[in-house]
Design goal:
By secondary structure, the protein is an alpha+beta fold. Helix content is 41%, strand content 22%. It folds into three domains: 95 residues, Efflux pump adaptor protein, beta barrel domain (Elongation Factor Tu (Ef-tu), domain 3, Beta Barrel); 54 residues, no CATH class; 117 residues. Helix 3 packs antiparallel against helix 7 and helix 5 packs antiparallel against helix 6. The longest helix has 33 residues.
Length: 361
């Protein structure tokens, strides 16, 4: 076998051998420097873009759907006899919700009617009473005339010496007694007229009759109130106690009506966001329950106090044990247009208000 050419072997070795680490070092150094510069620049650019995205708007996820609610209670007590509404039902204003046993109030009306009849009969009896007609007065005045005539005869006889002192005094006493009977009869007549008199509060109606009629009107009102109707249009909620046979206590709520068309959002914004907010600004509302739903709204009002100020036990910071906490102020967001999905009171939402102003940091 012929020997290989030394020049060719050297050339082949130069082609197949990899480059030395010293030859690759400059490329790796430039890569590290590029990475060290790009990452901070990317972070700064991302922060700047995020800061720009916050300009002209403020947001909060401390927001909830609110709806006006009316607590419905009965104005009279009794047992429920009929239920015509249940949880979730949509009712109109004036629609019958349930009935209370009306029988006790019908008996009260019958009792009041009897009292009216008794008072009317008493009025008739008073009008026909002798004290009112003056019969007793006429008789008493007749007795006075007779007593005075007899007294004059006895006095004439006494002056002539034909009568005793006892007869004279007896005749005089008879006149005094007859005049007293006239006075008593006149007093009885005035009293009878007073019992028939009417006052300025109910002119032309005897007070006893008026009182009995008032009792009847009250019983009739209570009878009408045994039918409890919806005061407003809305949806029935919390009607678990609305069961036949359940005893109803006056003024104790038995169900709640969630009023239709009263939906709004109460968003609790930080106090540091209020400087940029004003009534009428445009808002955007998103809901946790409906991720794809976005509704438009407007700032309707800004609360007059923070949530802590209206709490049952407001914080007392005058004790010295005080930590500054960023307060939140309720802002009412009116929803524009109709929602394609049912909005339920209490659902969580996220509100963004477009202030049109740059934030000062």
């Amino acid at each position: 076998m012929a020997e290989a050419d030394p020049a060719r072997a050297t050339e082949a070795a130069a082609v197949t051998l990899p480059p030395s680490p010293e030859a690759q070092q400059p490329d790796r150094s430039w890569g590290r420097w590029a990475l060290m510069l790009v990452v901070p620049l990317a972070l700064m650019l991302g922060g700047w873009l995020y800061w720009q995205s916050l300009q002209g708007k403020v947001s909060t996820d401390n927001a909830y759907i609110k709806q006006d609610m009316v607590s419905v209670s009965a104005e009279v007590g009794g047992a429920i006899t009929e239920v015509l509404a249940k949880d979730g039902d949509k009712v109109q204003a004036g629609q019958l919700l349930f009935r209370i046993d009306p029988e006790p109030f019908r008996l009260q009306i019958a009792e009041a009617n009897a009292a009216i009849a008794g008072a009317q009969a008493n009025v008739i009896a008073l009008r026909n009473d002798a004290d009112l007609t003056g019969t007793d007065i006429a008789a008493a005045r007749s007795d006075v005339g007779f007593a005075e005539a007899r007294f004059e005869r006895v006095r004439a006889l006494r002056e002539k010496g034909f009568s005793t002192k006892a007869d004279y005094e007896a005749a005089e006493q008879a006149v005094i007694q007859a005049r007293e009977r006239v006075r008593q009869a006149e007093d009885r007549q005035r009293e009878a007229r007073a019992r028939l008199a009417t006052g300025p509060a109910v002119p032309g109606v005897n007070p006893q009759v008026a009182a009995a009629e008032a009792r009847r009107a009250n019983a009739e009102l209570s009878l009408r109130r045994t039918e409890v109707r919806a005061p407003v249009a809305g949806r029935v909620a919390q009607a678990d106690r609305l069961q036949p046979g359940q005893q109803v206590v006056p003024s104790l709520p038995v169900l709640t009506l969630v009023r239709e068309g009263s939906t709004y959002v109460e968003a609790n914004f930080k106090e540091t966001d209020l400087a940029e907010m004003a009534v009428g600004q445009r808002a955007e509302i998103r809901f946790d329950a409906y991720p794809d739903l976005v509704l438009k709204g407007r700032v309707a009002s800004i609360g007059a106090g923070t949530g802590a100020e209206f709490s049952v036990l407001p914080a007392q910071n005058a004790t010295g044990n005080w930590v500054k906490v960023t307060q939140r102020v309720p802002v009412r967001i009116a929803i524009e247009g109709n929602s394609p999905r049912r909005l339920i009171a209490g659902l969580s939402s996220e509100v963004t208000v477009f202030t049109g102003k740059k934030r000062q940091n």
